[in-house]
């Protein structure tokens, strides 16, 4: 009798998980992003100049209320909209672990400085 109850409970749990997956799939149709996530749509690199690579990327984000598309740890992410409005770019932690972040003088972007001295500059357009 105990075994039968356990089997029914297991079958009920499996059915419940299956229904949750089906309902989730209905709400997140193909091509839709979950709230608070981003994906890279295009990425172009130009290495035509010596010792310099220009990279341009376009991201698609589904941000929550009060957030806007930004960059965290060198990846697209949803960040607090206040950071973008005030151009305090380093508050969104755009650089990789171990890199230093500095605002450009005109606040049009930021630089990430690696421990070896290599500098990556990002401008916002």
From TrEMBL:
It holds the Pfam family TAFA. Residues 1-25 form the signal peptide. It comes from the Eukaryota. One of its GO terms (molecular function) is G protein-coupled receptor binding. GO terms for cellular component: extracellular space. GO terms for biological process: G protein-coupled receptor signaling pathway. Transmembrane segments: none annotated. Keywords: Signal. InterPro entries: Chemokine-like_TAFA, TAFA-5. Belongs to the TAFA family. This is TAFA chemokine like family member 5.
